[in-house]
Design goal:
308 residues; mainly alpha; Na+/H+ antiporter like fold; 2 strands; 1% strand; globular
Length: 308
């Protein structure tokens, strides 16, 4: 039953935000959107505490898998986002949000799904770490190239945003993990709960702020995000197989490509002052990818590697 708690709470907060947006847009004179960046930084700090420098050095042990994964990560999803935005003719800032999701790196959720599906967990963690390290360069570059016609993109401002939201908190988490791992067991237990609560609140705030836009194009955006996510799995897996990776590694690449760090994309939308438009695709994509990822992981877990 525990596995259903998160999606149930996500559905609840989305429904609440759509019905009573005033409770999540502001609390008195305080704009709740100001909470998003600190919450994301706390979540990324938690991610850092679950990693070590070995995760970043893992590229030396499996260079082929990491190289193929990085090429797929930063080509398939950005171009899928761009193509879907064009195909559905979304308003400029909604379209840019879809591209922003595609231009973001993979997140911790992909590691969980790789573990559940009996994929190559070491490769998954290494790819996530490497993609995160590349994000300050690759995400602004891809957004400038593919999304610049939809919204103005300041390359260096976006790079600094990513450093603030992801790199600095992760580095602090790594340092904390190195010196304090196992010494504060209560913190190890509470950080995942805080992270889950933070993600749910962020989804609620973005949904409330973008309620009017969601009412106009909600179903179409959900369908576009579903295609983006599903085609990411399919093309990631197919590309990995085509380049000669084994079944476990191909499953890993599928998750790393199809599951993006939608929290980072939400944070960038906040920094750009477009939470109610640019932030909608990340808000839809995040819960959706966790649902589809869980289904795919469950299917692969039951499907023997030897039978591939």
């Amino acid at each position: 039953m525990k596995s259903f708690i998160f999606p149930v709470l996500v559905v609840f907060i989305v429904l609440f935000a759509m019905l009573f947006p005033e409770f999540l847009v502001s609390w008195g004179s305080f704009e709740t959107s100001l909470l998003i960046i600190p919450l994301l930084q706390l979540i990324m700090f938690g991610v850092g505490t679950e990693m070590s420098l070995k995760d970043f050095l893992g590229v030396v042990k499996m260079p082929k898998g990491v190289l193929i994964g990085m090429v797929c990560q930063f080509t398939i999803m950005p171009f899928l986002g761009f193509s879907l935005a064009k195909f559905f003719s979304f308003p400029s800032e909604i379209a840019a949000g879809l591209i922003l999701v595609g231009a973001s790196p993979s997140g911790l959720a992909s590691n969980v799904m790789s573990y559940l599906s009996k994929a190559n967990l070491a490769l998954s963690v290494t790819m996530t770490a490497f993609a995160t390290a590349l994000a300050p360069i690759m995400t602004p570059f891809l957004m400038s190239w593919l999304g610049g016609s939809y919204v103005p993109v300041d390359f260096f401002a976006m790079m600094w945003s990513i450093f603030q939201i992801v790199i600095i908190p992760v580095v602090l988490g790594l340092i904390f993990n190195h010196f304090m791992r196992g010494k504060l067991s209560w913190l190890d237990q509470i950080l995942p709960v805080v992270s889950m609560g933070g993600i749910i609140l962020i989804i609620g705030i973005i949904t409330a702020n973008g309620r009017d836009s969601l009412l106009d194009i909600g179903l179409l955006l959900i369908f576009a995000c579903f295609l983006h996510n599903s085609l990411g799995y399919l093309l990631g897996y197919g590309s990995a197989k085509a380049f000669g990776l084994d079944e476990k590694s191909a499953r890993t690449v599928a998750f790393e490509v199809g599951m993006q760090n939608s929290g980072l994309a939400s944070g960038i939308a906040v920094q750009m002052g477009k939470i109610g438009t640019l932030g909608l695709a990340p808000a839809v994509f995040g819960p959706l990818m966790n649902f589809t990822g869980s289904l795919l992981a469950s299917y692969w877990r039951k499907k023997s590697i030897a039978s591939q």
